[in-house]
Write a sequence for this structure.
């Protein structure tokens, strides 16, 4: 049985959604869950669910990393944090994968140092699954595990992202694009021109440069970029979607007739919100670590936690790391 | 009287919105307009408006640059294009400013070579005004006039963007932010760390690094980044907003009750669409050229063209280039 260590103290509402999501996952996916954090708080939440026979274990961690903590400092100073203990469980082989909705920087730093990096991997990459207009998912990576990446790093991100897409979304031959500012291969900056050149020679379905406008079009499955650009792209997308929904809500409350309109159309809104809701897509895996690490949004609800556990279990089952090692070993050092 | 040369052949629907927008602008803003392009097509459109006494002149240009044309090739080969002729009118002092909704790359290349660059400016910057959640405008620059910028270029973009914001949006002391991946000054890539350091020492209201999520929050007025990042940010924002509206429309047509809901709430939707509609904000000025050049969206309607002319006239009146020369001269070469 696959075992997932869940950081129960990570998200903004912790440990409530973490515990509920774990109960749902244990029930639906047949996985074992180790809930890591403050036992009293976790048990109080567990008591709210009828879950006596589920394979859920509570593992004590006395410290909590907050969203305000500095990642490297938190890693050094809070050795008993729930993130730290969850990573140790994976490192020691007691769990196959870890899931956290905590401080993304701290989770990445902790996973990088405690789990370590796969032999074939030079740099980890954080991969964000985003809903697209075709009703599918487009994965963007790296969204912030690195800044100032070199061409060979982006090539590795491409290979890892492609393997993740196959494992998580079932596409046999995902279309991979390089985020740039023009579709022609000579368009872009120094980095993308070099990376374009290298990706052309790999045995993947590389469709060339894609512009920012393609991220949500559904015409590409995996989009590769450096972590600086990817992080900005991700944050802009999240905030713009939130702002538009916020403005919409305000507009709909602005008159009696539009309020009435809202009553009639709210089912349609909910459907739309569900489609663009990050929580359906199961968090962002940190690719390239030994073991599996999936990072959820700080705002994760129980459904988001459940789906992150599903993805972590799926990547474990798919032996994603063996595939990464094999396929990266086949990439020429200088393509 | 301020004279604006309008590329009548640039946009996707040209010359209809260009002519209508020019008629509206001549009527409302007391500017003179030179409509540049194919005289027959322009006059046919002009005949649809009761505009015999307006200060509108038709200037012949026999060639048209399409969206598919390669910018540098179009510049070299189509010397009689409407973009080329409009730029010549500004260069020769017959017009104060040019407005085009054509191929952005071709307009930038043509303006750069024909108008030339201000003495104090090393690199031009394209500045995009974006609606924010507070009902105001946030300007993002550079959105694609350059790739691979150096720190001194971003410092110049900051100074130019700040002057443009004051001239176009009336803020006395706009808040300027540097687009990066963390608010602390040491966060970011090599480029942003160096630029942050230099901007701190300028006499502008620099609020430090801002993350992607702040672009639409209304907490910052001018956001500086390199052209690669800015172009991707702009295209993602445009396409995401379009996709959400598309999905919304689809969702609202999905049932009788939601269709009814739409009928009651469509005024609210229109208000929202107007708020996030690029056409209200008057196109993107190419900052740093001798003369004024405002580039509209290819999808520009008459209202967008009218507003682009308003902005071009306003920047001319505000003597934006004199201010750029003065203020850049005061920036230490190595801050």
């Amino acid at each position: 049985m696959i075992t997932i260590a869940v950081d129960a103290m990570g998200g903004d509402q912790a440990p409530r959604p973490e515990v509920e999501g774990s109960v749902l996952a244990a029930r639906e996916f047949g996985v074992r869950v180790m809930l890591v954090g403050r036992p009293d708080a976790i048990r109080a939440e567990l008591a709210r669910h009828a879950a006596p026979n589920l394979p859920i274990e509570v593992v004590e961690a006395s410290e909590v990393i907050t969203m305000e903590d500095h990642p490297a400092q938190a890693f050094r100073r809070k050795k008993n944090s729930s993130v730290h203990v969850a990573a140790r469980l994976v490192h020691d082989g007691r769990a196959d994968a870890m899931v956290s909705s905590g401080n993304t920087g701290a989770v990445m730093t902790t996973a990088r140092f405690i789990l370590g990096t796969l032999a074939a991997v030079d740099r980890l990459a954080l991969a964000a699954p985003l809903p697209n207009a075709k009703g599918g998912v487009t994965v963007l990576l790296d969204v912030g595990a690195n800044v100032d990446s070199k061409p060979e790093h982006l090539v590795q991100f491409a290979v890892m992202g492609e393997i993740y897409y196959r494992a998580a979304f079932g596409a046999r031959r995902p279309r991979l694009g390089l985020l740039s500012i023009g579709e022609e291969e000579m368009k872009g900056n120094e980095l993308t021109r070099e990376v374009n050149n290298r990706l052309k020679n790999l045995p993947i379905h590389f469709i060339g440069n894609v512009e920012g406008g393609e991220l949500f079009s559904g015409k590409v499955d995996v989009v590769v970029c450096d972590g600086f650009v990817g992080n900005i792209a991700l944050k802009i997308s999240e905030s713009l979607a939130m702002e538009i929904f916020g403005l919409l809500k305000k507009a709909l409350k602005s008159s009696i007739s539009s309020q009435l309109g809202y009553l009639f159309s709210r089912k349609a809104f909910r459907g739309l919100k569900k489609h663009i809701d990050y929580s359906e897509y199961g968090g962002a895996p940190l690719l390239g670590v030994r073991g599996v690490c999936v990072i959820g949004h700080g705002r994760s609800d129980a459904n988001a936690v459940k789906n992150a556990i599903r993805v972590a279990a799926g990547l474990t089952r798919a032996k994603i790391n063996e595939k990464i090692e094999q396929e990266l070993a086949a990439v020429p050092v200088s393509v």
Observations:
- The mean pLDDT of chain A is 91.
- Chain A has two domains: 1-121+288-321, 127-279.
